[in-house]
Amino acid sequence: MTRPHVHSAAAHRQARSDFSAKRRATIVGALVNLPLALIKIVVGVIGHSQSLIADGVHSAADLISDAVVLGAVQMGMQQADRDHPYGHARMETAATSLVSLFLLITAGALAYDGISHLAAEESTTPPTLLALAVALLSLVLKEGLFWYTLRVARRAKSQLIEANAWHHRSDALSSIAALVAIGGAMLGYPALDALGAILIGLMLAFIGVRYGWQSFRELVDTGLKDDRIQVVREQIATVPGVRHMRRLRTRTMGGHDAFADVGVFVDPYVSLTEAHRISEAITSRLVRHVDEIADICVHIEPDGHADSDAAHALPLREQILPELEDAWSTLPAAEDIQRVTLHYLDDIIEVEIQLPLSRVRFHEREQAAFDAVARDIPSISEIRLLYGAPTRR
Questions:
Q1: Which of 328, 321, 314, 323 is nearest to 369 (CA)?
Q2: Is 0.70 topped by the overall pTM?
């Protein structure tokens, strides 16, 4: 089952709004990172600051991250198609893995560079005041970019954009390390550069592992957490007509959305249209009250129906109806039968026959005749006669 059209239209409008915000945040990040990376690298060379050069390389790595994020956001907005029936939200999940990988690579490079400088004993030319000013400018710009991107990510509920926001924060942290390193080197403590790089590397590694693990869990179809699954169960149980449920399964996609399927037991004698209405009510309630649920497939099952081999071996309508019609063909009521309804219960079939109201006066005699038919067919437990005007098909 899919969510009703009214909910789909509202969800689509919200998705378009979120897409615009995510795209804008990513473009803003790229426009900041490109000139900032160039300035830091150039000034680092001119101003004799290895930490500022490393910080510039870090900003350049952010450009790669921005490009990956922008492409993933664009692809993630594509509608479901034949090759991707569940949509393209996993594009964001895969991109989150790539961003996490960039974070880990950058973390390793910073830590290695810090250890190398810590082990080196040669004297270096102290950095200039210009290098210190650029590091401070980088800190201000990247910290502002972090908070702006994080706000967009949380509003759009996007782990990909949030991971990219933390990539901006990692650049701000490396700018702090550069500030401390430059200031320390200017004051005669060059070892602070190496120690700062190692610390930032460890922080980046933590962020990369965190988001990489989350995206990995999505890629292997990890379901919602137990407390959220309990909320789903409670919402389904409140729908009138639902007796109990089984096999509730969920899988997350795109950082926030989840797809679900569930088997729901209802009164075995309800009509097909009523059962369908119950499934629609379940879908509508979950979409309204459980933020993560993007779509759910509801499998309606008759309460009391068994999954035994005997139940699965019962003949289908096309198989049993000819046998029934042949068995009651000589009965007077056979020509007036308006409808035959089959109820599959446990390992037997109950049959309901609708006859015109004019035949009700023959009920006892005709019921006895149909009872005899039921006794001669092993899979039939009983045949009930109903009387009334023909119903609309």
A1: 328
A2: no
